[in-house]
Amino acid sequence: MRLPDSVTGSFLVVLGAASAYGGWLLPPVPGQPVGPNVFPLVIGIGLALCGLAIVFGIGHTFEEEEELIPLEDGLAAVAPPPQGKLQGKLYGLRALLPPALLLFYVVAADRLGFIITAAIIVYVTSTALGAKWKLALPLAALSPFAIHLIFGKLLRVPLPAGLLPTPW
Amino acid sequence: MLKTLLEAFALISTWEVVIAMFAASVYGLVIGSLPGLSATMATALLVPVTFYLSPIAAIATIVAASSMAIFSGDIPGALLRIPGTPASAAYADEAYAMTRKGQAELALGAGVWFSAVGGIAGVLSLMILAPPLAEVALSFSTFEYFWLALLGLMCATLVARSSPVKAIAGMFLGLLVSCIGIENPGGVPRFTFGITDLFGGIEPIPALVGVFAVAQVMRAMLTPEPPPLPRRKFGSIMAGQWMLTKKYHWQMTRGNIVGIIIGVLPGAGADMAAWVSYAMSKRFSKEPEKFGTGHVEGLVEAGASNNASIASGWVPSLLFGIPGDTIAAIAIGVLYMKGLNPGPTLFTEKASSMYAIYLMFIIANILMIPLGIAMIRVAAYILLAPRSAIMPIIMLCCAVGSFAIGNNMFGVVTVAAFGVIGYVMEANGYPVAAMVLGIVMGTMVEQAFVTSLIKSDGSILPFFERPGAAILAAMAIGALLWPVMVWVWRKVKPAQAAVATGG
């Protein structure tokens, strides 16, 4: 997800300009010179200026390139990522899995209930990180109950029961 | 004084506090020792739990978990050369070099011992500094608060080991996020786009969890698993520590003092303290050539420093509600939630609670020695747990925890969104800590800024007229111009560039 500075900088310019304009449009408090519009205006302008500076590469010299630390004694820390066939364009999209699963929780938890939704999330995350089913399946079966015990039972968070109510 | 102290003892000697503290310590040690899971994340995931505890027990969990996590970040740093928390990154190389020389016990022991000493020094500074500063703070008007908040934000951008422009941009992003909602001077819906869930604004805690926890799970999806820890037998861990204390007492004290100063500065925390102290130690050492080859001196100074900053980071938090670092930012949220609103009056009206906080810090740091030794011995087993078993649990905690904060699903959406934002920012060199502090402090900055503007009738002059305001303004502007000065300095003396980056 490494984007060129010109892209992120331009995005900030647009965002800053939009928020400055949005702030400008807000109604002022009658009889007062400053209201809710001033702060977004200042921030928006600041953000746009920073964006411009980034586009032009100001301050780039301060950035430290991430160094990969090689381990010695044959423990290759920078081992080439395994599963060569997964290394396609889609490989980078795996990073979007966690937020997607959280949105899945938002949509599904009320209907399916906490236990089932949580089990699915655990199973998918675990498998995506390379776990075999021998680990992922028991984990998906047990951890939702443990979390439910802590949050639902002890801390009384109203977790949805859904299709599969917990025994307690 | 004695009466308040006794009251404080009574406050913390309940079973709830004792159990909460012990459990949080173990939790902090475990999370801190897992590479990639930082002390901030450990603390953020604790917040939903603190909802259901009494005020003192809630603060006890935060104090214990954060102190322990900062120390236990040293463990994978020394054994695997992967710092468990960013605050250990400064000396992970050095500690790993010691392990390879067969001095793992000495390196880890120094981690425990000097962390505990540093932590206690930090508490003492909190006890000594806070009351007189509270006197000063009572005379502060919105002008001073504005500059102080700005100073905090600017320090946060300095800490970042990245481009200062990007750090400032990150800070602005955070402030922009804090604009959302109807909590503004006019009470009008601002940037809500007609979505009712946005009327209340973005809660800092789900944003923090997203940026620190979800983004970490996202990164794990694309990075190879860290190597397993070679199992090993440890000799005596505390052996030789007393000798080190005597030999390096001056380095230790200097580390403590630097840590305290950096902690007290709003916005700068344990990471910066460790980097600065390690650099100082190397600079003033009698044998600088040994650094990097497994020399314990830098470890002593930086270890003493980062834990000292944890406690002293509470000074600006308790006095002004301005967080000393991201952990303190979470702590402030908890303080507000528990009716201990930060401010100078806290020290007069809730003195016993303050003493209870000091006592808990001292106890946590003493507890760190036995628990830390136990943790070092079992670390090899804990680090055996594969990432594919830990990350799913973290995911569940993110979902449930963010739901629990407001009992609505919008919290979970916020966490997911900030996970993506944090991931993209981190990948492109935008420091997320600056954004987080922007989100936490945004409302306060705006309030101080707008009130000051109204009082001054649109003029800029009153922002500098009061002596306190003038000093703070000079500091804040100095912090803003600092990168420029470093840049000029580097142009003038390219040979000394390496030294300049160290600060």
TrEMBL record, chain A:
InterPro entries named in the record: DUF1468 (IPR009936)
Pfam family, one: TctB
Annotated transmembrane regions: 6-26, 38-58, 135-155
Keyword field contains Protease: no
Top-level taxon of origin: Bacteria
Keywords assigned: Membrane, Transmembrane, Transmembrane helix
Domain named DUF1468: residues: 9-160
Designated name of the protein: Tripartite tricarboxylate transporter TctB
UniProtKB/TrEMBL annotation, chain B:
TM region(s), chain numbering: 9-31, 51-71, 106-130, 136-160, 167-184, 204-222, 257-278, 314-336, 357-384, 390-423, 469-489
Keywords: Membrane, Transmembrane, Transmembrane helix
Membrane is among the record's keywords: yes
Keyword Membrane: yes
Annotated DUF112 domain residues: 19-437
Pfam families linked to this entry: TctA (PF01970)
PANTHER family assigned to the protein according to its UniProt record, in alphabetical order: TRICARBOXYLIC TRANSPORT PROTEIN
Protein name as catalogued: C4-dicarboxylate ABC transporter permease
Lineage: Bacteria, Pseudomonadati, Pseudomonadota, Alphaproteobacteria, Hyphomicrobiales
